[in-house]
Write a structure and sequence with these properties.
With 272 residues, the chain is α/β, with parallel strands linked by helices. It has one domain: Ribokinase (UDP-N-acetylmuramoyl-L-alanine:D-glutamate ligase), CATH 3.40.1190.20. The protein has nine helices and ten strands. It has a six-stranded mixed β-sheet, with helices on both faces. The chain has a two-stranded parallel ribbon with strand order 1-2. The protein has a two-stranded antiparallel ribbon with strand order 3-4. A hairpin with a 5-residue loop joins strand 8 (171-175) and strand 9. Helix 6 crosses helix 7 and helix 8 (225-238) packs antiparallel against helix 9.
């Protein structure tokens, strides 16, 4: 998001180790404001990523210092009216950090911020499908992949899953990988052109529906593609752009991410 010229702040924790210093320096180089708490005696979280020949990845995460975060570690300066809070579902899936995740959502709402959630991962979510219910009542945008949407609704058809989630969240996006993405915004004051409406979303549902194709790109590594999608979608959404344009912005960002190794943005200027 910062790579594309938008202000971005990261809340979290690092350990008092060399990797923590590296993370802080890397964020500064990307012009991301860090509100990271340094946990003395802890190690910085890491994630081992295994990428296969097709570019698909398997992750083995260790939250490290993040597991020690408490509600006391949330600075009041992070919650400002007009800003947006995007929360990773991993924060809510882990018992150690669930309280701080919920507190962040409540404080964001109280401050007049908009909020969004990425369910994070279908596998751990499947063990407790209702674990995100309290958070879903506090968000404006839900960005889920097809598997996560199925776990949350029980529908294998992503269009039916989208319709079910749209009854609970004002704006819902379901990512379909190489098949693109679909979305519905119940609170919109305009609608996308009829050709962009997913056929399976109730045609009389109030608001705006849209779909977008994935952008062709050589898939080198899918690590970070979902985060890149959100980084493209949310600024466009917050600016009030039509939903179809938001999905296209997300697709462009995701296409850049999968075309290179690693989860971070490329060194190329935005748009290249």
């Amino acid at each position: 998001m910062a790579h594309d010229g938008h202000e971005a702040t990261l809340l979290g924790a690092i350990g008092d180790d060399a990797f923590g210093s590296l993370v802080r320096n890397h964020l500064a180089a990307l012009q991301v404001t860090d509100l990271l708490v340094t946990m003395r005696g802890s190690t910085t979280g890491t994630c081992i990523v295994i990428v296969d020949a097709s570019g698909e990845r398997t992750m083995l995460p260790d939250p490290g210092a993040n597991a020690g975060l408490t509600t006391r570690d949330l600075p009041g300066s992070a919650f400002r009216s007009g800003d947006h809070l995007h929360l990773s579902g991993y924060t809510l899936l882990h018992a150690e950090t669930r309280a701080i995740g919920m507190d962040a959502l409540r404080r964001a709402r109280d401050a007049g911020m908009t909020t969004s959630l990425d369910p994070a991962s279908a596998a751990p979510l499947a063990k407790e499908p209702n674990i995100l219910d309290p958070a879903i009542s506090l968000i404006d945008v839900l960005i889920a992949n097809e598997a996560e949407a199925e776990v949350l609704t029980g529908f294998t058809d992503p269009y039916r899953a989208l319709a079910a989630l749209a009854d609970r969240v004002p704006t819902v996006v379901v990512k379909l990988g190489r098949h693109g993405s679909i979305a519905h915004r119940t609170s919109a004051d305009r609608t996308s052109p009829p050709g962009d409406r997913p056929d399976h979303v109730a045609p009389d549902a109030p608001g705006e529906s849209a779909s977008a194709r994935a952008i062709d790109a050589e898939v080198v590594d899918t690590t970070g593609a979902g985060d890149a999608f959100a980084a493209g979608f949310l600024p466009a959404w917050a600016a009030g752009h039509p939903l179809h344009d938001c999905l296209n912005a997300a697709a462009r960002s995701a296409a850049r991410a999968v075309a290179r190794v690693g989860a971070g943005p490329s060194a190329a200027p935005p748009g290249e």
